[in-house]
Amino acid sequence: MSYIEQDNPDYSKIIKKLVSEDNTETLKGLLEDMNDVEIANNILPLKPKYQLAVIELLDREKAAEVINNLQQHSPVLEDIVEEMDTKQLGDLIEDMDKDDAADVLSIMDDEKATEVLEELSKEDREEITTLLQYDEDSAGGIMDPVVIAVQKDITVRQATSQIKAYIKKKEIDEFYVIYVVDEYNHLIGSVSLSQLFIASDSAFIKDIMDPDVVAVNVETDQEEVAQLAKEYDLVTVPVIDKHLKLVGRITSDDLMDVLHEEHLEDLGQIAGTGDEEVLETSVIKASRDRLPWLLLGLGGGFLAALVMRNYETAISDLPAVAYFVPLVAAIGGNIAIQSSSLVVRGLATGELRTEDLLKRTWKELRVGFLNGLICAILLTGLAWWLTDEIIIGITSGVALIVVVCLAAFVGTTAPIILKRMHIDPAIATGPFITTANDILGIVIYLAITISVYSQQLI
Fold first, then answer.
1. How much is the pTM?
2. Nearest 5 degrees, angle CA 352-CA 356-CA 361?
């Protein structure tokens, strides 16, 4: 068809047109030539009725993969599952990995989720229900309960036979590590595939296993799991419960999703948009996500206005001082954001720890002082030229150095302190720091410039 032969065609528009024309055969042909990722990306901007029409034309396995790929766009997926009946959702969820199925169920209302669970087999229902009890941002919430494990006291031949049977039963596509457990299912080691292949059939698992296995608890935050995987170069992370029993594994695709999600979350916190999705259709929810940060900025601005009012008389006698209030606040805010951004990134990647507070603060103070000194020299000359008052130039420059050093201190310490308080440090790079810095910067600038200039007049 000409639809497919076009150069760089807009498949979203093509799909919409085919659905509108009820041209099912052509649409089926188009979808057969596309993989699940391409289909998900192309139906993403469409309305639910077009998305549902596409999903209904796909076979169960491919439809399940498309639904899974839409999980990164919660508002879109919520609209789709809301329109689907429970039998259809149950069929799709049966073809998903259990951790992905739990994620889809978690976005439904309780009544519909319960109805969908009733459509599943007892075994699938129990496994998914177990996952749903964990926080969605914890290791338990993102783990796959299907994990290959063997007893320590069996031979390689026995282990290989058990693994083949388990793979066939659970339809496991990929695995890289076999975990070793004792008779109580406690995780005690691991065996790589290469070790299993080269070992003698009569060798015992306990003799070839690596006892130094890195695992995480079900309650561990997903961001910590991703950091741990990065630090130890893990492709798969085993998950244990409070009794040290092996309960699941976190695979590389889930780890990549975590890194992507945390990155977007940090960007949202920095921008003051919270966890708002780009494709969020609810104006009320978008407003609710953004409003708290705007109110924080409004409150900070009002406090800055109160500070300015306290200096009203002095400013009226010396209006030139007010010229540089926005400049000083802006420079201080930029310094604070630069310092805090580096600290937040270091904490996120594990390159910085909360114990590094003094060392990092000392470095940022020195950097801030050096940059502040250069800016202060330029400001002194510009202020002198603009006002013909050398004293205003000097005091403005001195005040700028003090403000910049304070900004570097706040920008460095705030994220680390928040991290110690178990609060996401990404929020420190948003309106919180800029608002606090504006207030303190204005107070310091006006206090120094007006007091020094007043002494000169006396």
1. 0.61
2. 105
